[in-house]
Structure formats: structure tokens, C-alpha cells
Design brief:
single chain; alpha+beta; 3-stranded antiparallel beta sheet; 3 helices; 49% helix; RNA-binding; Embryonal stem cell-specific gene 1 protein; MOEP19_KH-like; developmental protein
Length: 116
């Protein structure tokens, strides 16, 4: 038996009670969610509307992870999970590329010191 969300503003496309049972649950780094969802979760309503699902976030104690619960029909839950995980992976790859550029710049600076 799944737990019911604590939200009071359940989107109109979520069917009560059948869509509120057995949410899709996964964990994402908190800083990635802040990037994806914007300041104070301002973009969550947009993500919910596009995915036709409802999100509930639970910050895990003593962890850098946030638990994401996705409510909705089976297909909408899977699409929302895929969408978030894909965007999180894209963010991770961009961060990784940025670090590589930073490392290259640092090496260039170090090489420049050798020639002085």
C-alpha cells in the first residue's frame, strides 16, 4: 500500500485515489533538483503540467540526495521519471565538461608560468 502525498493542491489531471497509490520513487542530488526546478521549486508546476504527473520532494537527512515521488498514471509516472533523470544526466555531463575546461585552463596557466 502506497503512502498518500501531503499536498493539498493536487493537479486536476491526477485521479484521486487511484493515481495517488504506489508512486514512482527515486533519488536525485539536491543541487541538481535546485537547478532543474529553479529557485524555491518555481518550475515544478511546469514539469507537472508537461508530464501530467505530480511531484513530491523529500530531502533525506544527512545526505545530498532528495527523494522524488511521482504520482499519476503508470505511463505518466514513467515519462516523468525518464524526463527528470535525462535532464539530471545532461546537467551532470555539462558540469563534467565545465570541469574539464577548467582543468585545461589551469594547465595552460601553469605552462605559461614555466616559460616566464
Amino acid at each position: 500500500m502506497g503512502t498518500f502525498p501531503t499536498r493539498k493542491d493536487i493537479p486536476p489531471w491526477v485521479k484521486i485515489p487511484e493515481d495517488l497509490k504506489d508512486p514512482e520513487v527515486f533519488q536525485v542530488h539536491t543541487r541538481v533538483l535546485k537547478f532543474l526546478f529553479g529557485p524555491h521549486g518555481s518550475r515544478i508546476p511546469h514539469f507537472e503540467k508537461v508530464s501530467r504527473a505530480m511531484f513530491e520532494l523529500k530531502t533525506l537527512e544527512s545526505s545530498e540526495l532528495t527523494e522524488v515521488l511521482v504520482y499519476g498514471s503508470y505511463n505518466h509516472k514513467l515519462r516523468a521519471k525518464w524526463m527528470l533523470q535525462s535532464m539530471a544526466e545532461r546537467y551532470r555531463l555539462r558540469q563534467e565538461r565545465g570541469m574539464l575546461h577548467l582543468e585545461e585552463a589551469m594547465k595552460t596557466l601553469e605552462l605559461g608560468k614555466c616559460w616566464e
